[in-house]
Design brief:
With 167 residues, this protein is an all-alpha fold. 80% of the residues lie in helices and 0% in strands.
């Protein structure tokens, strides 16, 4: 396993914020309350796994699939979700994060003229490039939390199915 000299800044300023934001967003979109301690623990462990996975330099889709699998496991272990709920939550977060990430790339590239390739070659640009995305996702999390917005309320669906089962 080969880590380059830039791994610590990447872990602290890219992988950790992205994984933490992703965790909070996934939980909210699936109808679960954010528990800061759980979100931070998943963020830290997920960021460390992301560093290891990305240091192996697999194809982008392979690293994404590995991280999705790791995050599902972390949701199950740390947040005590069942595998189906964790999978749905991670999928919801992945879809929303992906859409915002693509939009961020187009906007940042259009406004600054900096391409993704240029950002990946320079550490400072690599750390700054996703900053608008992180800000937008944080605002989205706060809005979703304030207005109790969910895409699929898994917690409520479980409670309804338990009531139907008890009848």
């Amino acid at each position: 396993m080969v880590f380059d000299k830039n791994i610590l800044p990447l872990i602290l300023f890219q992988y950790l914020p992205e994984t933490t934001i992703f965790t909070a967003l996934s939980m909210l979109l699936a109808g679960y309350k954010i528990r800061l301690k759980q979100v931070v623990i998943i963020g830290i462990i997920g960021a460390l796994f992301a560093a290891v996975v990305k240091s192996q330099q697999p194809m982008p889709i392979v690293s994404t699939l590995i991280m999705v699998f790791i995050l599902i496991i972390l949701f199950v272990i740390i947040s005590k979700l069942d595998v189906i709920s964790a999978s749905i939550a991670v999928f919801l977060g992945f879809v929303v994060l992906g859409l915002v990430e693509v939009a961020n790339y187009f906007v940042v590239t259009g406004v600054t003229g900096i391409t993704v390739q240029q950002a990946m070659e320079d550490l400072t640009l690599r750390l700054l490039f996703p900053l608008p995305e992180y800000i937008l996702l944080t605002v989205l999390i706060l809005v979703c939390q304030k207005y109790n917005f969910t895409l699929i309320n898994l917690k409520e669906l479980k409670e309804l199915s338990k009531k139907d089962y008890e009848r």
